[in-house]
Amino acid sequence: MCEFFVKADPIQYEQRTRTVRIHNGLTSIRLENMVWDILAEMAEEDGCTTNALIAKFHEEILAHRGEVPNFASFLRVTCMRYLRRCAMAAEPQVRNAPVPALPKHLKAVGA
Length: 111
Known about the structure:
By secondary structure, this protein is of the alpha+beta class. About 65% of the residues lie in helices and about 15% in strands. It has a two-stranded antiparallel sheet.
């Protein structure tokens, strides 16, 4: 199982900084390429640009919480929650898919 994660393309976890307009001001956000890709997917699903989606998230969390202490972390968690929601929506298909066996060294840990 660890092999799946370890063999990830390093470009996916390489960070990239983008400038985003929020409330008529420019701000720089540094996120991993994979996070930017997921945000782009979410924006496409929502029918807007990635920058517009990020600005909308910022407005909504500001309205809900009154502050945004770590917006980059919020965006990462938002992407993870989006992926979890997608996985839960696909759960019936996942249940019927074959489950790969755990490597022996991981079976011993849980025993």
